[in-house]
Amino acid sequence: MTRTGIFLILAPLLLAAMSAGAAILVGSRRNQRLRERISAQTTRGASLAAIADLPSIRVGRRETSPLVGRIFRVLRYHPDIPQEHVIPWVVVLLASLVVAAFAGFRAADLMGGLLAVPVALLAGLLVARAMFGWQHRRYCDAVFQQIPEALGLMVRAIRAGLPLAEALRSVTRELASPTRDEFTRVLGDMTIGRSVDVALMRVYERTGLTEFAFLAVTLGLQSQTGGSLAETLDNLADTVRKRVSLAKRAQALAGEAKVQAGLLIVLPFIAALAMSFSQPFYVSAFTENPTGQKLLMAGLGLMALGVVTIRWLIRKAGED
């Protein structure tokens, strides 16, 4: 491969990595300041009842610039939830660059330098999306599993005679992360002037869990119409508990599909290994012949596409 071809592959990769890194760095610094402000509030501070007499505070919503927002959406990076990033974003970008460079060099050998650039960019993008998306799904699933317990704590606290703010604060004291972190942010939003339904809707916007939307609508309607808050939350907790149980059942049923998908993935490699002992000529045709190498790369690419499609179908079936 010539120097021009190497430059055509590496230059777009470095430019894309620098752009994504700059956008993520801006979001990370902004969320670090936000996390420091929120952590200093609510858990040991005064109750919301003592703040009720203060003048109302109008909170200005800071929007991310459209370009940075598009980059975050493409990468599936959520700067509003810094605690979900168990893998540092620098590691994700480095892994994406390594995969993109490898894919670009292999594509340049097989298809030429011009086609190698989009192949490298697509490979790096898919790796970054997969790693960021896995972290977000992992975080949201952990929150989803703890929602029934959080609602149960709120019901018991309200039946004991505590106000809603203290019931929310009991969740931050009793439950583990990540639900504790989300409810701490809810209390922080309430402290600076947002209503409880708006604060819970912000949790729904961050996580995409409809249970928080149910809770926000329930508390908003109850504050306007009145009634027994404990009974209302108890009914909602029962509904959410059934939804969580149904989701676990769907995951168990999806296990059979995952096993079948795993067999379909492993079977070609087992067949190739067995054939290498019985008829080595057939395997060497794919490893030593240039045409066979192109066919092998095309087959591996189609297999990777099939794996991604199967995982997407299984995940969508579980969500439905």
From TrEMBL:
UniProt KW keywords: Cell membrane, Membrane, Transmembrane, Transmembrane helix
Location of the Type II secretion system protein GspF domain: 151-275
Pfam families: T2SSF (PF00482)
Segments passing through the bilayer: 6-27, 86-105, 111-128, 261-283, 295-314
Bilayer disposition of the protein: Multi-pass membrane protein
InterPro entries: T2SS_GspF_dom (IPR018076), T2SS_GspF_sf (IPR042094)
Compartments where located: Cell membrane
Source organism, top-level taxon: Bacteria
Main location: membrane
Name of the protein described by the UniProt record: Type II secretion system F family protein
Species whose genome carries this gene: Sediminicoccus rosea
